[in-house]
C-alpha cells in the first residue's frame, strides 16, 4: 500500500516503561513513513505518559492487567468497530488476527536473544535500529526550567523496579562526591518514581550534604523528559528512567548487574552501559565498584565533548 493510503494505525506496545520507551523509535519511523496517519496507542498505565505529547496521536487505550487475560478482550471490544489500515503489535498477541486490518506486523514478545531495539527494527527491515525519542512541548520545558534553572546538572536515578538491580545508595553518594571533585560546579538532579517506597530509596542521597535537587515523584513523564534534557549526563540503574534518559539524547551510563545488558543496554546517541563482574544476568550490583563507574562516566562525558567538537568543526 502507498504510504498516503495508511491513515488509521493501531500500535500495541508494552506495559513496562522501559520497553515502551524502546518502542518509540519504531513509532517515530512510522510517523515519518505515513504522514497522513493517525495513531491509536495501546499500552499499560505506567507507560501511557510516554505518548502524551506524541504527534498525531488520536487516542491512548490503557490496558489494565486483569485475570484470565480479560484486558485483551477489552482492547478487542474497543477496537472491533474500526477498520484499521495497519496494526503493529509488539506484544505478539493474537488480537490483530481478530480485528479488521489491511496490514499487520506482529512481533513476538517475551525474552529474546539480542538487543530488544534491534529485534523490533528487524521486523521493519530497518538497520540501524531507529533510536528512541521523547516527545515534549513548551510547557514541559518551562516546567523543567522552574525546577532546574541552571545549566550544570548531573542526573542520578538510584531506584529500579527490582531490588536486585539497585546499586547501593551509599555508592551513589560516594560517586557524587567523586564527580564534585572533578566537576565542582555540578549539582545533582535526583530522579525516582512515584510512591513512598521510591522516595525512601533515595532519601539518604537527598539528606546528605550534597548539592542535590529533588525532581522525583509526581511529575509527568514528559516533564521528566524535559528535566533530563537539561542535564549534562545521567547515571542510573537499569530502569525505565534509564531508557527515558537515553531517549533524550544526553550522555547516559546505565548500571547493570543481574539484568541482561545484551538485551536492554540503553540506546541513544551517547548511551553506554557498565556491567558488574560476573556471569551475565547473574552478577551482583555489589560487584560494581565506584571507581569503575566514575571512570566510565568521565570517559563518556569526554567522548561526547569530542564528538560535538568534530561535528562543529
TrEMBL record:
UniProt keywords, alphabetically: Glycosyltransferase, Transferase
InterPro entries in UniProt: Glyco_trans_9, LPS_LOS_Heptosyltrfase
Pfam families per the UniProt record, alphabetical: Glyco_transf_9
A single MF term (Gene Ontology): glycosyltransferase activity
EC number(s) given by UniProt: 2.4.-.-
CDD domains on file: GT9_LPS_heptosyltransferase
Gene3D superfamilies: Glycogen Phosphorylase B
Protein known as: Glycosyltransferase family 9 protein
Taxonomic lineage: Bacteria, Pseudomonadati, Pseudomonadota, Alphaproteobacteria, Acetobacterales
Amino acid at each position: 500500500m502507498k504510504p498516503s493510503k495508511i491513515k488509521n494505525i493501531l500500535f500495541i506496545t508494552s506495559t513496562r516503561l522501559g520497553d515502551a520507551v524502546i518502542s518509540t523509535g519504531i513509532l517515530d519511523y512510522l510517523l515519518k513513513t505515513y504522514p497522513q496517519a493517525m495513531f491509536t496507542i495501546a499500552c499499560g498505565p505506567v507507560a501511557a505518559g510516554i505518548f502524551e505529547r506524541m504527534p498525531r496521536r488520536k487516542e491512548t487505550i490503557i490496558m489494565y492487567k486483569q485475570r484470565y487475560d480479560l484486558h485483551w478482550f477489552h482492547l478487542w471490544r474497543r477496537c472491533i468497530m474500526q477498520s484499521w489500515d495497519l496494526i503493529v503489535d509488539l506484544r505478539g498477541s493474537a488480537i490483530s488476527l481478530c480485528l479488521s486490518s489491511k496490514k499487520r506486523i506482529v512481533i513476538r514478545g517475551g525474552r529474546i536473544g539480542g538487543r530488544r531495539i534491534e529485534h523490533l527494527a528487524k521486523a521493519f527491515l530497518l538497520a540501524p535500529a531507529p533510536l528512541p525519542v521523547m516527545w515534549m512541548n513548551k510547557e514541559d520545558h518551562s516546567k523543567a526550567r522552574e525546577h532546574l534553572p541552571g545549566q550544570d546538572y548531573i542526573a542520578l536515578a538510584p531506584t529500579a523496579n527490582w531490588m536486585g538491580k539497585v546499586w547501593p545508595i551509599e555508592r551513589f553518594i560516594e560517586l557524587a562526591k567523586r564527580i564534585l571533585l572533578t566537576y565542582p560546579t555540578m549539582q545533582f538532579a535526583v530522579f525516582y518514581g512515584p510512591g513512598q517506597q521510591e522516595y525512601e530509596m533515595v532519601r539518604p542521597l537527598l539528606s546528605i550534604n550534597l548539592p542535590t535537587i529533588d525532581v522525583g515523584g509526581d511529575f509527568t513523564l514528559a516533564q521528566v523528559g524535559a528535566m533530563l534534557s537539561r542535564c549534562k549526563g545521567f547515571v542510573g540503574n537499569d530502569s525505565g528512567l534509564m531508557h527515558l534518559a537515553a531517549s533524550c539524547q544526553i550522555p547516559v551510563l546505565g548500571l547493570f548487574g543481574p539484568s541482561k545488558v545484551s538485551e536492554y543496554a540503553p540506546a541513544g546517541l551517547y548511551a553506554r552501559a557498565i556491567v558488574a563482574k560476573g556471569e551475565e544476568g547473574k552478577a551482583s550490583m555489589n560487584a560494581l565498584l565506584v571507581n569503575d563507574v566514575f571512570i566510565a562516566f568521565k570517559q563518556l562525558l569526554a567522548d561526547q565533548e569530542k564528538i560535538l567538537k568534530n561535528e562543529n568543526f
